[in-house]
What does this fold into?
Amino acid sequence: MALDVDGQATVRVSEAAAERPPVRKALPGGQLWLLLPALAFLAIFFAYPLFDVVLRSFRDGQGGFTVQNYEAFFSRAIYIRVLLLTIEIAFLTTVFSLIVGYPLAYVLANSGPTVRSFMMLCVMLPFMTSILVRTYGWMVILRPNGVINTVFAGLGLGEIQLIYNRSGLMIGMVYTMLPYMVLTLYSVMRGIDGRFVAVAQSLGAGRWSAFWRIYFPLSMPGVAGGSLLVFILAAGFYITPRLMGGDRDQMLASIIAYQVDVLLNFNFASAIAVILLVITLACFGLYARVVGLKQLLSSKV
Amino acid sequence: MGSDVMGSDALLNPGLPVRVFAWIMLAFLMAPVLIIIPVSFSSAQYLSFPPPGFSLQWYERFLGNKDWLAAIWVSIQVATLSAVLTVIIATLAAIPLVRSDFSRKTLIYGLLLAPMIVPVIITAIALYFIFARIGMGGTVIAIAIGHTIVVMPIAVVVLSATLQGVDSRLENAAMSLGASRFQAFRRVTLPLIAPGIISAGLFAFLTSFDELVIPLFLGGPNAQTLAVRIWNSVMLEIEPTIAAVSTFLIALTVLIMVAANLLKKARRWA
It folds into this structure.
């Protein structure tokens, strides 16, 4: 469904997950064994490995129990800085994605079918294209001899550093997360009945007033859902910060990878992974409470 | 769906400034994808834009290089394996999720979707530790298993929705005419959900083909996927060969999107 160009499926999935028509007579539980392959696969290759990471995070070099990995993390300024930076970047990415994504989703949801199909294609094609490819595209555009700086030089302007620093990181993050925000908002906005706004206007509300007091509150599930989804994804993101950020813009995911890849410090890496996981799960708990699970389903596909 | 009329309600028509903003943002979304294609046909010896002339030199460097071809081959193996694994497991799981009633269904659904909310970097290192311990690290199978974990939740959602769209009374009718439950599923339901299964498979294939973090940790010298090779190359220098590789990946994406849309149309006509 994720391949749908017109976005109809996004809506359909959320509806399907939401309500089950009573026509479907329940069959006896004889089919439950069909869940076994999925559950066994997840138990072996997902739950157990994660459990192992949690255990490892409490292990010292000799295999004994310890909390020193966590102590090491929270007692060093550099790691605290990375933790706060991760939260800050994820938060900023969420805010910018929302500011940019809301009008875009609004236009998408309220255009005629032809325009909408084309616009949806412009959202889905980048969304489905490899993140590496898109990031490489940005490197071509933003780097010192890249497209933008060539244009600037042609205009007689000086070179500006747009990549390998905070601005490069933010462009890359917002760019990568924007489709998630837009698709979540879109699935909610498509369900908003325009007649509410029409009624408000016929009762004397101005365009803006009708929007802020009627339409915007109705779109809140999308705003909350999209924001939490983007925050969760951004907080754990690895590729874009590595390729487009500077050395001082590295987030928790980069530190985890560095500890595993370069320092072979598996237990400490596990502790950082658990910290990232706790942040993610806390946000997800909030998400499930505020928006409900079905929104997550509709926005990811 | 009915919301079509309401959705394009004249009263909700966005004003001109909002529409202009939306188109600029769509250009922002498309820009990095579109810029790569002309760059990949550049005749320059280094990366420059606009390209001074047309040439296929970067494609020759890409497709004439044994390492790049080997990486494509690894990616094809990984993506095929994980797509097949994902589709089989997810289709089986979707049947009871949609057709049966049992307590704790929400819990089971939540469990099946859990890999979606765990950052991939954590899933990757967790599997890396496990596979390293049993000596399975650096293999095609390890990467495929990792990708199956990442893609399966979405496949379960998509296939559940597809199965939801098939009236179970058709299956009941077949059974009342003497078919066994398995026969009814295979002869009636399966053909109806086949387009959805193929779509999910194509999507799983594409996701696996493009995903980087899992093979970065679970791959190795003998199992280097295309994504990992691009990554290693981009970390060193931004050379135009990557533009040719990227254009190849964009073409693959477009191809799969078109195929999925044709399948959807076919399902509508059926």
Notes: The domain at 65-269 of chain B is CATH 1.10.3720.10 (MetI-like fold). The radius of gyration of chain B is 23 Å. The mean pLDDT of chain B is 88.
